[in-house]
Write a structure and sequence with these properties.
Elements lengths: L2 H4 L4 H9 L8 E3 H10 L11 H14 L4 E5 L4 E4 L2 H11 L3 E4 L12 E5 L6 H5 L6 E5 L13
Parallel strand pairs: 4-5, 5-6
Antiparallel strand pairs: 1-3, 2-3
Helix pairs in contact: 2-5, 3-4
InterPro entries: Disease_R_plants, WH-like_DNA-bd_sf, WHD_DRP
Protein name: Disease resistance protein winged helix domain-containing protein
Amino acid sequence: TLKLSYNPLDPRLKLCFAYCALFPKGWRFQSDELIHIFIALGYVKKYKNQSLMDAGEECLLSFVKRGLFNNLSLSSRERTLWMHDLIHDLAVSVAGCKLKMVESKEDELDDRVRHVSLSSKVDICLESLSKMRHLRSLLVMGPRRRSTCPPTSR
């Protein structure tokens, strides 16, 4: 099953992977942006003389090696990654109730939620977010970098 790629991950890598459930299916991840998020959340730990960015890059490379992410571009300046819909479903499954992607007004926010992503199309009252005692991060998602189908190989 798909969990065979997930189960042996280090606990910090599991947190990083689960966090990806906050992004919509088909999202094109910019590696540097994702690494900065992981660093800000305290999910990346550096070893010896390694920088946090290098440690974050190792995290993403681990995901690619395990088939949890696919490379869309290998530019030396900026790498773009993509997650298959089935892998995204796994991320949602392992994320549990601590992460929530809000795509419509009807989506309810549980007090236990720690991380929320909002579609830019959702009009939500910030007062309801302020009542969430455990909220640690909020992402507002726009339409950019979203694709409805898997990328084609060249």
